[in-house]
Amino acid sequence: MLRKLIKYEFRATARVMLPLYLVTIVLALLTRGASLWLELATADMTMGESILGFLAGLVAVAFVLALLATFVVAVVLAVFRFRKNLLTDEGYVMFTLPVSPHSLVCSKLIVSTVWFLGAVVIDVVALVSLVADVAMFQEMGRMFREVFDNLTAYYLGNGVLFLVELVILFLVGCAYTCLSFYSPLAIGHSFAQHKMLLSVAFFFAIEVVVQIISGIALIAGLPALDNLFFWANTNLSPAGAIHGFMWGCIGYTAVFTVVLYCLTIRMLHRHLNLE
Questions:
Q1: What pLDDT digit, counting tens, does each position of 257-269 carry?
Q2: Which of 132, 158, 175 is the last residue of a domain?
């Protein structure tokens, strides 16, 4: 059933995200084309260059906004789908399905994470298209070969592990981002009145608690940073220190993610008051 929920969620969100991805790529190509066209303009066409420069600037601004929108819209869409699908009239239908709240929430987390990843890929492709040429790809190919050879020769295990840690941290971060909105919405909608107002209040309350705990954790860890060469004075290698830092970030984020997930599930289980 989880697969069907994910399929349904992709269908509902793809109609927004896919056109946005396409617009971002098109604007990147238009920005590149306008830049090349402006470079080819002759020096005596002052008025023409002025108009072309203005249009190129507009396209560039639209492109930057599109880059930001890929992430902003992905977050807004994740929040909107959670509220509309589970906390309004649609929730009466969704909670009659033979699925648990775990499946309902996980389907949305998985789909949202895919769109976040898609935003990263699209933005990178769009930025590369602004400066891409044959020489650049040749240089990138040479650089990647050198990096791969070095990793294979000396640091293959550490390099692969670092990439795995980076992917895990990204996935956990995506889940935390979604749940930081899901949990206050679920709490706020457990009340009979002022649901959205209370959801906003609980959002800020949760963020304050997270920041306080983060501050306490940072203060508690400051003694270990008194010595600038702390890592050098331990038995850890530089690679080991990096791995330790990455797993620390993963574990720290995962703790908050699990707490927010459990809170969201509990509210959906017992205290939900649908509109």
A1: 999 999 999 988 8
A2: 132
